[in-house]
Amino acid sequence: MMIVIMQAEATTREKSAVIARAEDFGFKVHLSDGKERTIIGIIGDDRVINREQIERMPGVERVVPILKPFKLASREFKGEDTVFPLGDHTIGGKEVLVMAGPCSVESRTQIIETAIACKEAGAHVLRGGAFKPRTSPYAFQGMGEEGLKYLAEAREITGMPIVTEVMEPALVPLVCEYADILQVGARNMQNYALLHAVGESQYPVLLKRGMSSLIEEWLMCAEYILSHGNTRVMLCERGIRTFETYTRNTFDINAIPVAKHLSHLPVVADPSHATGKWEYVAGAAKAAVAAGADGLILEVHPRPEEAMSDGAQSLKPEKFAKLVVEMRAIAQAVGRDIMP
User: Are 155 and 20 part of one and the same domain?
Assistant: First the structure.
């Protein structure tokens, strides 16, 4: 892949001419309109196209090859942060977005009660699992479409958009009927058929890092989604597997600034899955805000001791409300904010 950097004063006609030339050679083209420059990404075997011919075209400033394996996700392709709306708020800009809710939808009463509590405490997006991949086949697997219907009802009551996990390509159309954001879980990060499907959906995607995955592998999976022209992708750091046993996973706080340096995509932190214990969630969440996370996704349950999944890492609503206040102070200290 190479990128064509257009001159600041390049006309629409000149940009269209470059795109047409690339498409004549059979290349895929991705356009990125920045505040100061327009960048045209040309994807394909660059040996069959003459770079010098492109550079001589009117309006072209220069042509630069992208060396990283993740092309569309890289800062080389897009220097500015990707920002897009989620409900009444945005992700990727100055605002730090807060997603909250239970691991699983267990009943209509439970999800609505939790959604209202999360909204009152300052959450912007409601999370909840209708389809639950579990380590044991005998554990609670979620309520399926019934759970999606309860999530949609909670959205009507609170006004919060919904993020929920989709586990296989065949389920993407069904989940899109109810949800606003598609979550690809850690176990499915390299499910390439699913990545293609969520990319084709054009819905916002929350892509969780696999528990044993390199940052480059994570970004390459985002590339699958972006290759379909779906630019609304969020990277989610949720902890990796190490030798430590006192926590469920090891929260890779390094991954937040590294991903922000390598990619223009928003980065979301999941301290609930990273630590696995509610006692550690607040500390990890505040550290994530300080490290530059664009959003947090937190598990909240009114009665964690009764939760059918992940009760040990779920915050009670009052603890979540206290945490939002503390995170807001940290966000403001680093030049950002958590809006009410």
Answer: no
